[in-house]
Each structure stands twice: as structure tokens, then as C-alpha cells.
Specification:
about 70 residues; mainly alpha; 3 helices; about 35% helix; about 5% strand; elongated
Amino acid sequence: HANNVLAHVADTNGFVSGIARLLKDDGVAVLEAPYVEPMIDHCQFDTIYHEHLCYFSVTALDKLFRRHGLYL
């Protein structure tokens, strides 16, 4: 379980690769990540923090996780 950790990670591929390595075949990882769409749609720019390196769309997260054999 990782609350808002992915936004702080510089090497997202390495991070997700590590998740894939640690999970059992039937394992589940639960991650919370800031979602870019409502932030833009509702002008929620006050939610942008300098320590957040990334904001993700579902499409971007799906591609990132599939690259490492994981699925949303």
C-alpha cells in the first residue's frame, strides 16, 4: 500500500519494476496517485507541490504498469 508515493519518485520505471518483482502472481498493489484530469478540468492548481515530480493520467499509468507486466 502506497499513499501518494509515486508522485515523489524520479525513477517511476524502477519503482514499478520493484513492485512487480515483490508481488506474488496473485498479489495486489494499492497505490494512491494525484490524477491530472480533474486538476486541469477544475483548475485545482493549488494541489501542485514542488516535491511532486509527476502527475498521471489513467492512460499514462496503464502504459507504465503494463510495461512491467502489471495492470490497473
